[in-house]
Design a protein that fits this description.
The structure is a homotrimer. The first copy, chain A, is an alpha/beta fold. Chain A folds into two domains: about 5-205, 2-enoyl-CoA Hydratase, Chain A, domain 1 (Alpha-Beta Complex); about 225-290, no CATH class. Chain A contains 14 helices and ten strands. The first copy, chain A, has helices spanning about 30-45, 70-75, 90-95, 115-120, 140, 150-155, 160-170, 175-180, 190-205, 210-220, 230-240, 245-255, 260-265, 265-290; strands at about 5-10, 15-20, 50-55, 60-65, 100-105, 110, 125-130, 135, 170-175, 185. Chain A is globular. The interface of A and B includes residues 139, 142, 143, 179 and 275 of A.
């Protein structure tokens, strides 16, 4: 199979390297979700690697975030339902967290929003000390992250730091991400490749059954229940339907969102500006919207037609 | 409403600042418990702020600890039962942990015993690197902490460090408190105010519903069950009824407890001395008391009449 | 009672010090398991100490790992069943984690494999910054650790770091072990004894009932369920029966395993070599063995006769 959003180096059968390459900033779009679904199916067929490592061809962006243009949103909705029956993005992450391979994110550049959700669903997260930037800026747009961070982060970094990451929406650079336990380690960038290469090759040489046993037993005491996720994405779709979020998103696109821009480099700082812009309208519009919007279905998201409409295209 | 134990700055409607000011050392007394109950009721009415930040007017004491004079103990017992039906102090902390506002402790100075219990029930804890001191010295007086630390700390810092904090009863200064995850971060004191101010203003500008959603979902996976708390305070009242604890407390008062004293500045060190004093008597008295003392009721504490009697007044 | 694998200093009734001394490298053998069982029975009779501290007479080895010679394996199997009915080693660790005394490991030197399992079952772990080395190298031999780490580590250090420790099988030196939360703290070696001595004396002077209460309540929210452990040791015995593991172990013995050797000093590095040696044979042999080997009984291990046979003796 040929992939367009990433390359797969499977020259070592026990160790596959997935390198994201979706210019300009490695957005997670419908095509990438579909292709990752294909890739995971290959791995699930159990003829795959012992270790699956994810990295990026772009040193500034690991996975910037979800492509939030309305056009792409519709494409995601048109993807065939995944094995779990959940929304395609949730489906993908649940499967990622249970793959019969050790999954490792080697994070250089930004991994925010859905990019952070992706690395949280991996078994292990290594970060470049100077280049990695993680965060969940959704709160700055008016939503809570919809695909897992409220499940993963409290268990990983503790309740207090999970609240700070999720409620503050700030950027977490490598060193602080390590102190908080958001990533396993932050490694100096000039040693990063050597460190990751050694670790993944090492693990890939170990006994497959031993690796599988460890994953099985650690999952038993630390994997969130699948049922935690659908209500999260419902809450996200509700937020996305609120005028406040649409206004903030529109403002962000004006400033350069989804482009190779300063906004994307320092999104954690910029979200404050988007908030200030739309603040006067907030209280009223929100109240109205909350009353009107019906609960989403839990599997596909609610009213999808008006989400982030006309933001970019 | 006028408060006497703290001031409330609500000039920014979305961001209320509560500044503890109860000289000489910001003890948590019956009046403060009552007043905090009133304040929380205001916030619960949902006309309150998005963010509630707690700080102290005294750079040496955030909240020193519970006022353990017998006279004040009786006053706490005479407070009307709170909404949860638990002991007033447990009731207050359970409500604090569930407030419909983001709660942040900005810790400068000592937060020991009940002061530590208070900050543990907040969503986020920021500490001054040089000035914050946290700890649970109860074990040094002969009791386990009765209002939450045995629930919060293992989940926050892991079982091993929770044991060290609770069994050792030592003082944890800012930097070590951060390394253990007892606080979110320890910030250099000269940057502390700027850092906290920026964070709380930022969060207070975000969408109320998004903040509420995050709190709801993080609580679902990280909030202790209410029923964990009452047996803890029962165990505390049992300890308080033992002669050993009364002897240690008496000794501590002689040395300057509850005053602006070296004992209060370095309580974590002093508890060893109190123990040595009463040690010869310990084994016998304890055994007798254990046999005599009936189990407490779980909501109000057991036999209250002889607790810390005549310690100070 | 006279012990041969460790000394017990009970000159202070409330503080017993257990010093491992089983040359050449403090292996955990059947004799040590039996003797520790006797010691724990003494402590369980409740006439024992408030604090039980474990250290080693050998600055290079705290507890190297399980004695994996077939001869000793048989001796373990011939030990009388412990109170829990589980395999003697699991039985011992479950009892350790519930002793009516505060248990503290003062780790200088290597604590790998079963040595790491031992310290994880203690309440508190202090490590020498320069001399402590922890790790679970089992994966490098072809097995997952069988007695607890998959239960303890995710809860202690979070899922991501637990995976790294267990899947990577590397050595964790004091400082990194602290950053990960694998130990409470790493203390500079020249301050290590003073630090530990002060802490354990301090705790041993505190009220016995208060210590017991803290252990009781912290256990309620952080102790793994006993039933988690037997399936783990079953998975371990299954692995041990596979030819791949026997081949790797044989290679390791050739290189100096269980002796005062460079292999034992840097086992985390050496396991890669053992893997490379046996790799060509791996895929085939494994598949055959998996089909043949019956599930173990959960309490005593499965087919014990062919485990690590003729490795050394």
């Amino acid at each position: 199979m040929t992939y367009t959003r990433f390359t797969v180096d499977s020259s070592t059968p026990s160790l596959w390297r997935v390198t994201f390459t979706n210019p300009p900033i490695n957005l997670i779009d419908s095509m990438m979700i579909g292709e990752l679904g294909e890739l995971f199916a290959e791995v699930e067929r159990n003829q795959g690697p012992a270790v699956l490592v994810f990295d990026s061809a772009d040193p500034d962006y690991f996975l910037a975030h979800y492509d939030i243009t309305a056009a792409d949103r519709s494409l995601v909705d048109s993807l065939p339902p995944g094995p779990t029956g959940f929304h395609p993005w949730i489906d993908l992450l649940v499967r990622l967290s249970k793959l019969p391979a050790v999954t490792i994110s080697a994070i250089r550049g930004r991994a925010r929003g859905a990019g952070s959700e992706f690395v949280l669903a991996c078994d292990i997260r290594f970060a470049s000390r100077e280049r990695a930037v993680l965060g969940q800026p959704e709160v700055g747009f008016g939503a809570m992250p919809g695909a897992g961070p409220v499940s993963w982060l409290p268990r990983l970094v503790g309740r207090g730091r999970a609240f700070e990451i999720l409620l503050g929406g700030e950027d977490f650079y490598g060193e602080l991400a390590e102190r908080y336990g958001y990533v396993n380690r932050a490694i100096p960038d000039d040693e990063f490749e050597t460190f990751v290469d050694h670790f993944v090759r090492r693990v890939s040489m170990f006994d497959r059954q031993a690796l599988a046993d460890i994953k099985h037993f650690v999952n038993k005491v630390s994997l969130p229940d699948d049922e935690e996720f659908p209500p999260q994405i419902d809450a996200f779709w509700e937020a996305a339907a609120r005028p406040a979020m649409q206004a903030r998103t529109a403002k962000a696109f004006e400033e350069g969102l989804q482009q190779r821009s300063d906004v994307e480099l320092r999104l954690g700082e910029y979200v404050e500006q988007f908030t200030e812009t739309v603040r006067p309208l907030r209280a009223e519009t929100q109240r109205r919207v909350r009353a009107d919007s019906p609960k989403g279905s839990g599997s596909r998201g609610g009213a999808s037609t008006d989400l982030w409409a006309n933001n970019k295209d």
